[in-house]
Design brief:
This is GNAT family N-acetyltransferase. This protein is α+β, with helices and mostly antiparallel strands. The chain has a single domain, classed as Aminopeptidase (3-Layer(aba) Sandwich), CATH 3.40.630.30. The chain contains five helices and nine strands; from the N terminus they run βαααβββββαβαββ. Helix 4 links the parallel strand 6 and strand 7. It is globular and about 35 Å long.
């Protein structure tokens, strides 16, 4: 039986370092398994990357992760079943972070399905987003690898990750942030439009995809 726990904690977003390559790897592979149709790559393609590959990926960019202190989300008993338990959360915006005000205790860890909590420490990862810059477009930041864990979708985590990417682009003197949405991914399209992106007619990298852009406000 789930027991509601009243908590008031920050959800923070930061870039992972190269030394956190194992966490980066596990989150990326979890995303590819959870939402295979949302990415141009695949689990099979990336599962055998080397330590060096993960340390340096994305090349020239950053890999942001949103964290919730793990004490606020006690893991459920899973009994070997690969699932996320039902939960109730409420996010609001408070400065540069999101505050989680109510959480059910029956939420399984994002990574516990793979038994990979040993290096996570005291924080629960809720979502990821990366940045990448193409040599042909040195003033454009490409937002890549966006994924939010099922337990946190629709709660403002994606907006926090977008803000981190836009901030990175601003710090690097870029004019725009660009991304692609796979065909049929309506929830992602809705989220990006709410975050200030606009649809373009640019040719997508993936067949059927849609390219969106957002200007970088320098003020």
């Amino acid at each position: 039986m789930d027991v509601d726990v009243d908590v008031d904690v920050d959800v923070d977003v930061r870039a992972l370092s190269g030394d956190e390559w194992q966490l980066k790897r596990d989150l990326r592979l979890t995303a590819l398994k959870d939402s295979p149709d949302a990415f141009a790559s695949s689990y099979a393609r990336e599962a055998h990357r080397s330590e060096t590959d993960w340390r340096t990926w994305p090349p020239g960019g950053a890999f942001f992760t949103a964290f919730l202190p793990v004490a606020a989300v006690p893991p459920a008993t899973v009994d070997g079943v690969d699932r996320f338990s039902s939960h109730a959360v409420s996010f609001g915006v408070d400065g540069g972070s999101s505050r989680l005000e109510g959480v059910s205790s029956g939420v399984e860890s994002v990574l516990s399905r793979a038994g990979r909590l040993d290096h996570v420490g005291s924080a629960e990862p809720l979502g990821i987003a990366g940045t990448w810059v193409a040599a042909a477009e040195p003033r454009t930041t490409h937002l890549i690898s966006m994924w939010v864990a099922p337990i946190a979708r629709g709660r403002g985590v994606a907006a926090l990750l977008v803000d981190a990417v836009v901030g990175w682009a601003r710090d690097h003197g870029h004019d725009t942030v660009e991304l692609e949405v796979a065909r049929g991914n309506t929830p992602a399209m809705t989220a990006y439009l709410r975050c200030g992106f606009i649809v373009t007619q640019r040719e997508p990298f993936t067949t059927g995809g849609t390219v969106l852009v957002r200007p970088v406000n320098r003020h």
